[in-house]
Amino acid sequence: MRFYDRDTELASLQEMLRQSRQEGRMTVVMGRRRIGKTELVRRIGDERTLYFFVARKTEALLCQDFAREIEEKLGVPIGWPTTFSEVFRFLLTFATHQPFSLIIDEFQDFQRINPAIFSEIQREWDTHKRQSKMNLIVSGSIFSLMKRIFEDAQEPLFGRADRKIILKPFATDVLKEILADHNPQFTPEDLLTFFAITGGVAWYVALMIDNGKTSRSKMLAYLTENNSPFINEGKNILIEEFGTDYAVHFSILTCIANGERTRGEIENQLKIDNIGSYLVRLEKYYGLIKKRLPIFAKENSKKARYTLSDSFLTLWFRFFYKYQAFVENDALNQLARIIERDYDSVSGFALEQYFERKLRESGNYTRIGKFWDRKGESEIDLVAVNEIDRIADVFEIKKDRKRYNEALLRNKVDVMLKSCEELKGMEIRLGVLSMEDM
Known about the structure:
By secondary structure, the chain is an alpha/beta fold. Helix content is 48%, strand content 14%. It contains 19 helices and 11 strands.
């Protein structure tokens, strides 16, 4: 699959490259695994670029790998350094007279190798940055660790990044472009399945495209093929985040994927009290769930519901983790039957996510959300508000437009207006979003 999108991020990286010719610049690129960070940073356009991958080796062995890369790309001998501080100091000094870019991938894994490396980087960077013309790009996949390294005021690298790029999934229009390039006759069902499975994550998109899975039936079948990369994907990308404490986190995520959306519902399902700290970590620290409140509700409202932030993980926990016994017993054909049987329950939620993302991407609204009353009733699928122009667009989301009932929606809006003083005096526009609007 060819390289799509990322124009804004590439422009930002190239601006940092330009500035680094005057003095050192540090850019941090963060994002979930598979989002396309490595492919992005390798396209910065600098003829002299070193690429360091932080493999799980001893510091001395890792430095030998780095020394070989230096000698090959820069043409200068560095000997046999045994600490990263030696390597980094050498490169910062070298860059005072010969500018170049240094990419350090999976940067957070220095934590496993030698946590003191972060302090050593800080010391050398602070000492040499103004004289050095190094364009330093550090990239990391374990979001929680990367945020702590660069955003926790107690950490040595706090405040050192000149720019941070949080790489997000492909936008809905880009997904449509990709699918149209490889299946010009795609249907709305094809597009919805493409979104539900990949969520716009670059690696999943490339897997589907490169393997010719561009229709609903082929995409769903691919999930459970022998040796499918999707089968253990959720576990592969999350075990490192959670460590040995993953079982409770996984159970909570499974409940949310299955529709247990409130704290009380999750606690009842798991027979565990006081999961509040887990929910806070999953939302604030890991970024895996979203706490949803009715639009304009106060932050301390007791009406909170939870959803998974990631489309693919919603699907993975709904099917692969829930039915892991099928996987362990090689009953993938039976799991395929369950996915085909129950896929509509996931795709309906995916359709809501699709339109919410699409409206956010439009930039036309200052606030987007849902509404439900204190009993959890009178639910409205999507409320998009422009507080500047005093307009609120209220939508029901239906796969089949014929099922839309405007009178029913109007009754729900009447309930919402009694709860949301902020909407009074606004122009309220009612409508429906269906598959044909994708």
